[in-house]
Design a protein that fits this description.
The complex is a heterodimer of chains A (191) and B (155). Chain A is α+β, with helices and mostly antiparallel strands and 191 residues long. Chain A has 8 helices and 6 strands; from the N terminus they run βαααββββαααααβ. In chain A, the strands form 3 sheets. In chain A, strands 1-6 form a two-stranded antiparallel sheet. In chain A, β4 and β5 form a beta hairpin. In chain A, α6 runs antiparallel to α8. With 155 residues, chain B is α+β, with helices and mostly antiparallel strands. Helix content of chain B is 35%, strand content 12%. Chain B is built from 5 helices and 5 strands; from the N terminus they run ββαβββαααα. In chain B, strands 2-1-5-3-4 form a 5-stranded mixed beta sheet, covered by helices on one side. In chain B, α2 crosses α5 and α3 crosses α4. The chains are: A alpha+beta (191), B alpha+beta (155). Chains A and B meet through β5 and α4 of A and β4, α3 and α4 of B.
């Protein structure tokens, strides 16, 4: 349920670390390793260039591909060591079509609101979101992507640190207004 | 390790990371499944693993223990599967190299969509490459197989 703060109690977030808290998270989420499976369209992307996946691969009704073109038909639980062969991690999939969790082409503010919204993120509250971002095996694969794929722009330990710091600060989104007590007005949307 | 292939149990003594395709062809002599690219890019090695169109060239054999594996040799006892009958009816193969993979992928498609549209066929079959370009006949044969299946063919 959203918490609406009265306008007289709300001021714009000051520039500085709070306003920048989501910046590094967005840089990671919009790196090819994350964004390629969070596309705008129903086709995953591939390579560092983010081109549509070869072979007409699609999201499918459950995020795991279509009839005889399921993600796990080719993507195993570990990377294939051969160049240009399918990478792999447990539970290889896209978000399902009802909650596509689009990262591609979103502003950091839009991205932030998307991943925080339980209606759009698979029902995760903030703790579950942090857990997902810092421990999920498919997320962690981003830092072990195999030959020929660039990992996200900051290390996984640094990403985990930033995610925890962001959550502890109330998970502020870029452009959020904050109350005079310092809590982002939008924080109540998480619960 | 023990594998269940075409409803038969097989004991194989191979490294856990050996691709299933190697086991099928080189260890067990089931050579109907083809080696094409070795990187899950062409579909020639497609077999069924618990009903899924698995690319056996990139599937470690250790991943299919306790699963039901079906190869082209086991799709039917006498080439009577609707897809096999349709392939003959429409004279699909040219050189034939990719065709066992094509047939196995088509069979999975029909198990999910008994009356597929052309779009369904495109989405299901685009991972199976045919250098001879038999795609129009493949498409026609899948529609024919759907008809055979509706008329009471085997699964």
């Amino acid at each position: 349920m959203a918490v609406e703060a009265k306008s007289s109690q709300v001021v714009p977030a000051p520039p500085g670390r709070r306003a920048q808290a989501f910046h590094d998270i967005a840089r990671v989420l919009q790196s090819p390793r994350c964004q390629n499976c969070h596309p705008t369209a129903d086709a995953p992307l591939q390579t560092d260039a983010g081109i549509p996946h070869a072979m007409l691969v699609m999201r499918g009704p459950d995020g795991r591909g279509t009839t005889s073109m399921r993600c796990a038909n080719c993507h195993m639980v570990t990377n294939n060591p051969e160049p240009h062969a399918p990478p792999g991690a447990p539970n290889w999939h896209l978000p399902p079509p009802e909650t596509p969790m689009v990262f591609e082409g979103r502003s950091p503010a839009e991205l932030c609101r998307t991943i925080k919204d339980p209606r759009r993120n698979g029902g995760k509250d903030l703790d579950q979101l942090v857990h997902h971002l810092t421990t999920d095996s498919l997320v962690l694969w981003g830092w072990n992507p195999g030959v020929g794929r660039t990992p996200p722009p900051i290390s996984q330990p640094e990403f985990a640190r930033v995610v925890h710091a962001w959550a502890e600060a109330g998970a502020p989104c870029p452009g959020d207004q904050v109350t005079r007590s310092g809590s982002p007005a939008a924080r109540g949307r998480l619960h | 390790m023990e594998l269940t292939i075409n409803d038969k149990k097989h004991q194989v003594d191979v490294p856990a990371e050996m691709p299933l395709l190697w086991v099928l062809r080189d260890v067990l002599g089931l050579t109907g499944t083809r080696f094409g690219c070795g990187m899950a890019l062409c579909g020639a090695c497609t077999v069924h693993v618990d009903g899924q169109a698995q690319r056996s060239c990139v599937t470690p054999v250790s991943a299919v223990i306790d699963k039901r594996i079906v190869t082209i040799e086991g799709l039917s006892p006498d080439s009577s599967h609707p897809v096999q009958r349709a392939w003959i009816e429409e004279e699909v193969p040219q050189c034939g190299y990719c065709q066992s993979g094509q047939i196995m992928a088509a069979a999975v498609l029909l198990s999910h969509k008994p009356d597929p549209t052309d779009r369904d066929i495109d989405l299901a079959m685009s991972g199976n490459i045919c250098r001879c370009g038999t795609y129009p006949r493949i498409r026609r044969a899948i529609h024919t197989a759907a008809r055979f299946k509706a008329e009471g063919g085997t699964p």
